[in-house]
Amino acid sequence: MEEVLNWYRLSYFEHRVEQWLVYFMGIAFDLSEKDLLKFTKRLELPEKKIDFLVNARARTHQVLMRFSRTKKMLPSEIYHTLEECTIEELLYMMAKTNRDESKKAISLYLLKLRNVKPILTGHDLKALNIEPGPIYKEILRNLLDARLNGEIQTKEDEIAFVQTHFITKGARMASTRRA
């Protein structure tokens, strides 16, 4: 745990980490859910923290299981696998796993992937004459995945991507006439 926490500290991340929580996960997450609940109640942790720990235990076990079954993941798959995890969960998993591929994936997420965002916004999509609605979420997610996977780099790439994958495929275009 200490090695991972030192790596995080030396990487100059802005987000402060609750170190005690990472150590606690290392101690308690091999317990069954029932024993974890007993342990946390005995320590008189607040109910909110207990709920977090129970959910974090399930989430980290699920993520580590997925990593153990998958040989190679695209950056977008790594991103979507880890995006719901807290920094503490990520550091715990990095310390817990013995698989170099898993450590590299978590490290890549922390160092690069978690800060990737599409350049285009809903305003840009509207300017491209795409009718506002649920399609925006789909478009922005596809842009994010393409950016994560290195398929697009610039705003122009994103516009071309939207035009190729959505406008020519029949995304609902905003009417130029208003009733």
Walkthrough of the structure:
This protein has 179 residues and is mainly α. The chain folds into two domains: 2-115, cca-adding enzyme, domain 2; 122-167, no CATH class. 64% of the residues lie in helices and 0% in strands. It contains ten helices and no strands. Helix 2 (19-28) packs across helix 6 (87-96), helix 3 runs antiparallel to helix 4 and helix 6 (87-96) runs antiparallel to helix 7. It is elongated.
What's the short version?
The chain has 179 residues and is mainly α.
Sum up the structure in keywords.
179 residues; mainly alpha; cca-adding enzyme, domain 2; 2 domains; 64% helix; elongated; disordered C terminus
User: What does the radius of gyration come to?
Assistant: 21 Å
Structural class based on helices, strands and sheet pairing: mainly alpha
Q: What is the strand tally?
A: 0
In quaternary terms, these chains amount to: single chain
CATH level 3 topology of the largest domain: cca-adding enzyme, domain 2
Annotated CATH homologous superfamily of the largest domain:
cca-adding enzyme, domain 2
CATH architecture of the largest domain: Orthogonal Bundle
In terms of per-residue confidence, which ranges show pLDDT below 50 for 5 or more consecutive residues?
174-179
Mean pLDDT across all amino acids? 91
What string gives the helices and strands in order? HHHHHHHHHH
